[in-house]
Amino acid sequence: MDIGTSELPLKGSQLVSLRYFAPAEDVRDLVSVYYLFEVDQPRFDDNERAAIAQMRFILDGTATLSFANETSYPCENAMLVGPSTGAMHFDVNGPFRMFGVGLLPCGWAALTKQSAAGYTDKAVPADEVFTSEVDKHLVYLRGCKTAEEMTSWADKVFSVFKSKVKPEVVEFSHMVDQWLSSEPSPPVSALMERSPQSSRQVLRMVNKLYGMPPKYLARKYRALRAARAYAEHNEEELLALEDAFYDQSHMIREVKFFAGVTPTKLRVSEGETATLIDQRGRLKGNIPSIVSDT
């Protein structure tokens, strides 16, 4: 499913565009969304909200991605980006094109077979983690004429990994996602009550699949939901979130840290990239709510 292309005019005829696609139904436990990001100008920089892990194929140009822990990574060719603990900042050298894949916890487990905690706030060349096959995928994507060719390729690639996901991992990730969506600031104790595993096992699995402890994970998605509510002027959602923060100043700090911009700026005018990212909401029902709602 394609939600179409949205573009933002910058200077003159130069544009930044971002196009989202829902993955095929049989890989939706692995992949949240596909996207094609294009910048038709020599330089462009902006903030990006805290996010799940990503596979990013740089088709043209280069970029630098900076994380909340003040580390920066050059991005070119195929990159594996781990889960982020705060807002990111990217600086693009264009013209730039990038095909991206949002990796859900099950997708991370199937592809990497490594703990996401070891890649949190990192962006590494994909060939450091995967076989040389990833380079062949990059060459194929660079030769694609349309975004539809790219998403068709991605569906086929990820369908192969579907059988590599253990049923208990799928069940566990669904449980965690339901817990995150259950209330604005779900207590960790509520997660433990949902699981037959010991507290230690739950903590270990959440770190392994999501890259951070449950308490921090809940904090992250609470702030991202608030950021989306501010951007959409959703007063009902903001009212529901009010008691999830200590006070107004606490909410402001958290939103700025995880979304990269203050609530006031979100109400008035988001950054170019954030405005485009908000398109994901149109795929609600075809991608995980934890993604479409943040």
Automatic annotation (TrEMBL):
<dbReference type="GO" id="GO:0043565">
    <property type="term" value="F:sequence-specific DNA binding"/>
</dbReference>
<dbReference type="InterPro" id="IPR046532">
    <property type="entry name" value="DUF6597"/>
</dbReference>
<protein>
    <submittedName>
        <fullName>AraC family transcriptional regulator</fullName>
    </submittedName>
</protein>
<dbReference type="GO" id="GO:0003700">
    <property type="term" value="F:DNA-binding transcription factor activity"/>
</dbReference>
<dbReference type="Pfam" id="PF20240">
    <property type="entry name" value="DUF6597"/>
</dbReference>
<feature type="domain" description="HTH araC/xylS-type">
    <location>
        <begin position="170"/>
        <end position="269"/>
    </location>
</feature>
<dbReference type="InterPro" id="IPR018060">
    <property type="entry name" value="HTH_AraC"/>
</dbReference>
